[in-house]
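Record type: monomer structure entry
Structure origin: computed from sequence
Chain ID: A
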Amino acid sequence: MSASPRRLLAAASSLALLALPALALAEDNQFTSAVRSRGIGGALPLAFMGGLLTALTPCVYPLIAITVSVFGARNVSRGRAVLLSTSFVHGIAAFFVPLGLFAALTGRVSGALAGHPFVQVFEAALMFTMAANMFGLFEISLPASVQTRLAEVGGIGVSGAFAIGVATGPIAAPCATAGLVAILDHVANQRSVAEGGLALYAYSIGLGLPFWLVGALSLGLPKPGVWMERIKGIFGLALVTIGLWYLRHLVPVLKDPPAFVPHATWFFGALFFAGVAIGAVHLSLKEGTPSQRARKVLGVALAALGAVWTVSWSPTPDSLTWRQDARAAVAQARADRRPVLIDFGAAWCAACEELKHQTFTDARVRREAARFTAVMVDATEPTPEIDALQRDYRVRGLPTVILLDAQGREAARVTEFVPPDRMLTLLQRVN
């Protein structure tokens, strides 16, 4: 491929890549935003597209024709082919859906651990390792003998096709990362078993669609080529971005750009596109000259940093005047016969950040809350004192916003993101 078409392909890839960091980051990601605005039904197409993109990566795409032949969807009647292919796709779902259910059921536990520096470093290292796999520095895959054994599970027939679908899950898993992170983070935060199951089912259907088209309809697919490497590069860059995002509370420059950097969204976006243009997507670490590899590294660094700053940085908004000394503040408010607003949150909690940046910055909410004593309890890094406060106020998950009346009695409790109108209504009811 000549240099000019290659640059055009890189530019086109960057348009798709622009949404991926936001899709994969835990706070205010596109999947979460879609659920907020359109419900889980409106967010399922994003999960479906994440699975479909996974199917188009080099570690899955070449397996499609081979796998279809293994479970016997060739040289049979159309009805039989549809049945076998559908069974295979639901086998894939049987592997991935439990991940969503597990994230929902253990979200409270994983959330409590998420703020620990060791966990953050581990998550970042995992993302960087998977990105290195995407960039071709090494291959993460099951041994060929294990893949062959898995492919033989169940034999021919509907149950065999289902079993092979289940076995395909771990084979595809090394590429099932960037799109999956956003879904699992959202589900873990919301702790919704129904949303977890539905989202991972939609993801599985997207992943299995090319298999189904080849098996059920005998359709041909485009030949593998450079376009697959571009998709792999997109996923790799998204994973590096996620890794930096996990480190933002340990490395202050990732959350707040240094003073000499223009603090503007347009500059962060320009930095991102500059990194893509230099070679973040279209150059290879495995092949190419030393200068091309250096451009790849520089491009990935600039693009990932630009993406993290674009998502994490925002001008300091006008918000409530928060007190940090919870017990003293509540005692003083009771003596002054003032109502109290206590916000239990954490940096790793997506809904907490939405309350902070969308609800408590609303001018109407700030005016009404002026008669309250506002207390912020940051549970990002739990301490014995914070644990005691959570026990005293029966806080079982984050976010939790508690409104106390002037007599110190609980008048309202919020355990999820609520928009400004809803919060305003709750505040107005407290005397």
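Annotation 1: Residues 7 and 277 are 8 Å apart (CA to CA).
Annotation 2: Residues 78-105 form the longest helix (28 residues).
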